[in-house]
Amino acid sequence: MALERTFSIIKPDATRRNLTGKINAMLEDAGLRIIAQRRIQLTRAMAEGFYAVHAERPFFGDLCDFMTSGPVVIQVLEGEDAVAKNREVMGATNPEDAAIGTIRKTFAESIEANSAHGSDSAENAAIEISYFFADVELVG
Ligand code: ATP
Ligand code: MG
């Protein structure tokens, strides 16, 4: 195992319900360190660019509407095996399939409003981190 970094978003359904602290506590309890964090309002262009891989999926328009419906908290997490560990703490995309104790099982409202995003590979993590953060903002 290696010290790794991943990119995380606390989504608008969670910020709306004031769950930032509770979600951060779950990430920290799993051994992940929040080494950068910013609360922002995504523009339509930012959401479309971030989710460009899903541009052809039927839910793309709704997803971008949702991701711009309120503030998000963007984060860089660091830890052993951070990409896989964060995906484990988040749980499955559909909260109905997520394991008990995961962020999505505990908080998600639906498959779309599922409270958290986490990079799905180290390669995508690097791309997603640099989409939002400059290197000097990452304080490990
Ligand atoms: P994320 O990329 O946000 O961490 P994920 O990797 O678990 O989630 P993806 O397949 O990458 O899932 O989908 C990206 C996001 O698109 C999901 O988190 C969810 O908000 C939304 N989404 C995925 N599938 C559907 C669907 N069938 N209907 C509506 N929204 C969906
Ligand atoms: Mg994904």
Q: How far is the first residue's CA from the last residue's CA?
A: 18 Å
Bound molecules: adenosine-5'-triphosphate, magnesium ion
- Report the principal-axis shape: globular
Radius of gyration: 14 Å
The biggest beta sheet is recorded as:
4 strands, antiparallel
Walk me through what this model shows.
The chain has a four-stranded antiparallel sheet with strand order 2-3-1-4. The protein is built from seven helices and four strands, in the order E-H-H-E-H-H-E-H-H-E-H. The protein is 39% helix and 20% strand.
A few lines on this structure:
The chain is an alpha+beta fold. Helix content is 39%, strand content 20%. The model has no long low-confidence stretch (mean pLDDT 98).
Compile the SSE list and pairings.
Blueprint: E1 3-10, H1 12-16, H2 20-29, E2 33-40, H3 44-50, H4 60-67, E3 72-80, H5 82-90, H6 103-107, E4 116-118, H7 122-132
The chain binds adenosine-5'-triphosphate and magnesium ion.
